[in-house]
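User: quick one, fold this
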Amino acid sequence: MGTRIQHVAAVAVAVPVLALTAACSGGGDGSGDGGAKDKGTPGAARDGAGAGGGGAAKGGVPPLSTAELESALLTKGDVPGWTTGSADADAIVPKERFGTDREACAPVADVLSSEPKYARTAYTSGSLVKGGAAGGGTVHSVLLAAHERGEAAKWLTELRGAVRSCDAFTGTGGAGGPRYEVAPEDPGAPAGDDSVAFRLTGAGDASDLVVTVVRTGANTASYLSFGVADTPEPIERKVAVRQHEKLVEAAAG
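Assistant:
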């Protein structure tokens, strides 16, 4: 496996080994790990004034709670032809901070860091493989996260700028070490109120990774895509669209 980002690699390996479970389940409890501040506010208590559109009443999808994020995770019936499974959110975003040696690249590292600039107020995770794990291809780990109102939109704006200006970085912190080149990926606008995609190409024996972040109001879905046998591909548009729809549905109750 080489020296790919260690905590994300654990998810990519575990998915095919376990052959995936029948449905997604979450790992984030909002108790402080993964940059989470709290569990978010239940839908009945929110005023719906979150950033972006997303289809919810009063101007967009507000920050969801852990339970709401878990209910929004894709299951087998949501994406025909795909196998959905559980993934440990603390493996995707471990307790140690992940950073870079270049400040301009910080928004990129925040996808994987337990202490991002814009903290997660709640989060959970799952995994997706087209057709099943045995056939190789690309494994997609997905991290659903809620952010303070307006902060998800700020992060996506900064992330887009970082992908354009940060051509390479060396990881620092608990899982740092390998050097990665950063290049924009062009999936179009797969879903949601905003989206950013990029490819991390590892130097030496470090493996490649495609990251797609889709915003639904004050929430984000971050897809971390690994090639099991081939070059990793971005998440398919129809999958990102359905995930966006489920986040909107979770906000509506």
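User: anything notable?
Assistant: Strands lie at 82-86, 98-100, 120-130, 138-147, 168-173, 179-184, 194-202, 209-216, 219-227.
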